[in-house]
Amino acid sequence: LPSDPEPTPPPQHKPYLIGVGRADCTGPPADVPLMGYANPQQTAAGIHTRLYSRAFIVDDRRRRVVFVTADVGMISQRLRLEVLKALQVKYGDVYRQDNVVLSGTHTHCGPAGYFQYTLFMISSKGYIKASIEPLVNGIVKSIDRAHRNMKPGRIYRNKGEVDDSSLNRSPHSYLNNPEDERDRYQWNTDKQVLVLKFTDEDGDGMGMLSWFAVHAVSMNYTNRMVSSDNMGHASYLLEQDKNPGTLPGQGAFVAGFSSSNLGDVSPNTRGPHCMNTGLSCDYLNSSCPVGGTKMCQGFGPGNDMFDSTRLIGHNIYRKAKVTVCLSVCLSACLSLCAVEGDPFWDGIRDALLGEPSNETQECHHPKPILFSTGEMNWPLPWHPQIVDVQIITIGSVAVVAVPGEMTTMSGRRLREAVKQVSVATLRDTEVVIAGLSNVYTHYITTYEEYQVQRYEGASTIYGPHTLSAYLHKYRGLARAIAQDKVSELPVGPEPPFFKKLFNLLLPAPVDRKPANSSFGDVVQQVYPVYRQGDVVSVTFVAGNPRHSGDMVRQKTFVTVEIYDNRTAAWEVVYTDASWETRFHWLKGSNNRSNATVEWHILPSTPGGSYRIKHFGHFKQMKALRPVISPYEGSSDVFRVTDSFYYE
């Protein structure tokens, strides 16, 4: 790798105007389904790590662009529309549809409920205001902070390779691509990481933005805690490194790790195994002899999902630190292999619409269609019919915002197509794909991969020629940028903003507690002494975290505090955003619940006197009206020492 990357040349020798900003966008960590695994039973019940939006504004004195990477499964069209509306109110025409890119890291452990299309609402209990409002507010606040912090600066570009962090989960589909095309690449995944480093005029670091292709699914579908997963952990590590002495989410340096063409790329480097036998899953269909596809799960590289998240996140962080609307098949269709031919799902399909038309079946061949979602409009359209395509340029880097999950080879073809158009006018052009951007349209495979109809092909909803349509559109955008004819591009139709959205999540009930107790009381107390490497655990009488509202983003449910003998005061050393803590919400019967806080003590933790505090809110009825009140609780004081024998 080059040790001294050259800065991207500022236009007319004037420095760029650069702004970076970060804001909490954590939604309610209770009751709400988590977005990604499409499992309505996987509802939030605590916090592993908090979710953040990270914004980067670059102004070359001619044009201004904004790139946001948010700890979210994907950017939905509804989320983008609400963010753009809020930005228009604040800034007028400064930040618009054409110069703002919103991209999701693809964590599968963030609250769902921020879509306006039926298919997504069905699997996530509808449109949930308590979920989308923190996302909108957090994204807008991160842009606000970047806007306020803008200053003259420079941008440095570098790239490297991240090893031992990715595995192609559909190699059979990949092998269906032409052999001569595959021979041009050493790997069946893209191991390249592209890094942009932002500094002020004095060379002091302001932030870093990078792209790497890997699914943020180290935390698997059994997890019920809100988590930013491996990409979020990479951001956490670099920000802690560059902002020493600060709590997570604080400090001036902002580190964004963004998704790329990750469609067929898994972080589970040991591969898929059957949970009931430990043997490898069937190569072709990822199923097990007993239990089918539901028993097949990817593992590694760690001993459990937390360890795997840590290892993958650290690998990406370490390398980044070193390198400091579609016209083909207008009807969208989705095939879910696990339920194909199931009488229950077939019955729902036929009752709602009837079997797919011959034209649709021919268009999507060889896909066995479960739902012809492009022909389904009750109670609202099931899939987007207007899709944004977008490219922004930062110096000589072209950022291609892709509205879905491109496979490895699809991404390679797209990068090559854009580069061929751009290279004639932009010297040393680097093309990078920003996945899960602006609107979600599931997967985008090559034509050859589509024929295999693995998961990715079955989830390519616009048919076998989807990639060809995207290549055509992005070539047109790249050509307009290269020829400075962006103003001549047609705006295209406006996406719909539906008014009547349904919500299937019931309001959180009143909270109850055991007799002769108060919210915040300790149910299970800490031990008096712990050693480095131990896990401290304490359980409190708790309220439903959904009642905490804005506290979810502005404060914390947890603090770990050390007693400072010099000041005779308690100092917060960890919060629920810290990797070392875990906040579990335990829902009991009769509207009672507990909160268990874990602190995983690092070997480097200094000895001393500590306590753990929990903060929350509970709801009661007073005079037939709901009243929400705050509470807090504290553990006993305990010591951390390198020995149980102390004076």
Automatic annotation (TrEMBL):
Domain of life of the source: Eukaryota
Residues bound to Zn(2+): 106, 215, 405, 443
Start and end residues of each Neutral/alkaline non-lysosomal ceramidase C-terminal domain: 475-640
A GO biological-process term: long-chain fatty acid biosynthetic process
Reaction catalyzed: an N-acylsphing-4-enine + H2O = sphing-4-enine + a fatty acid
Cross-referenced Pfam families: Ceramidase_alk (PF04734), Ceramidse_alk_C (PF17048)
Cofactor note: Binds 1 zinc ion per subunit.
Keywords: Hydrolase, Lipid metabolism, Metal-binding, Sphingolipid metabolism, Zinc
Cofactor or coenzyme needed: Zn(2+)
Gene Ontology molecular function: any one: N-acylsphingosine amidohydrolase activity
Spans annotated as Disordered: 154-181
Protein EC: 3.5.1.23
Broad enzyme group: hydrolase
Active site residues per record: 266 (nucleophile)
Family annotation (InterPro entries): Ceramidase_alk, NCDase_C_sf, NEUT/ALK_ceramidase_C, NEUT/ALK_ceramidase_N
GO cellular component, one term: plasma membrane
Domain Neutral/alkaline non-lysosomal ceramidase N-terminal: 16-322, 340-471
Compositionally skewed regions (Polar residues) per UniProt: 165-176
Entry similarity comment: Belongs to the neutral ceramidase family.
Protein's recorded name: Neutral ceramidase
Organism: Scophthalmus maximus (Turbot)
Gene that specifies this protein: asah2
